[in-house]
């Protein structure tokens, strides 16, 4: 039986490409028990997907938002659960 995990997806807008956003997202993720990915989108946004314990995921996303606040104009979030298996945290191209 598959175990459902909490998943938060965030789409960041602003000056979020070309400023080390994905690298910082990956770096901060190492301090939390989260898996998932971060990637640039063709429309200039960055898409983040973080999976794990709800509290851990929320704390991770807040830490990233605080760290990159000067570059984020807006963000949109969606939460759900998933039984997909995520291993580690990756920067996707």
Tell me the major beta sheet: 5 strands, mixed
Continuous helix count: 2
The overall number of domains is 1
Strand runs, count: 5
Mean pLDDT: 96
Spatially, the strands of the biggest sheet line up as 4-1-3-2-5
Structural class: alpha+beta
Order of secondary-structure elements? EHEEHEE
Strand content: 35-45%
Distance between the termini: 32 Å
CATH topology title: Alpha-Beta Plaits
Q: What is the rounded Rg?
A: 12 Å
| Name of the CATH first level | Alpha Beta
State the shape. globular
Helix content: 10-25%
Q: State the low-pLDDT regions, or none.
A: none
CATH architecture: 2-Layer Sandwich
Pfam families: Acylphosphatase
EC number: 3.6.1.7
Catalytic activity: an acyl phosphate + H2O = a carboxylate + phosphate + H(+)
Protein name: acylphosphatase
Protein model, in words:
This protein has 93 residues and is of the alpha+beta class. It has one domain (5-92): Alpha-Beta Plaits (2-Layer Sandwich). The protein has two helices and five strands. It has helices at 21-29, 54-67, and strands at residues 5-14, 34-40, 46-52, 72-82, 89-92. The chain has a five-stranded mixed β-sheet, covered by helices on one side. β2 and β3 form a beta hairpin. The longest helix has 14 residues, at 54-67. The chain is globular, with a radius of gyration of 12 Å. The termini are far apart. The mean pLDDT is 96.
């Amino acid at each position: 039986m598959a175990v459902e995990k909490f998943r938060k997806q965030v789409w960041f807008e602003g000056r979020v490409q070309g400023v080390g956003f994905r690298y910082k997202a990956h770096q901060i993720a190492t301090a939390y028990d989260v898996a998932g990915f971060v990637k640039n989108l063709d429309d200039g946004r960055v898409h983040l997907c973080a999976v794990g314990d709800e509290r851990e995921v929320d704390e991770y996303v807040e830490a990233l938002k605080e760290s990159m606040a000067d570059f984020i104009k807006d963000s949109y979030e969606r939460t759900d659960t998933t039984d997909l298996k995520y291993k580690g945290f990756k920067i996707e191209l």
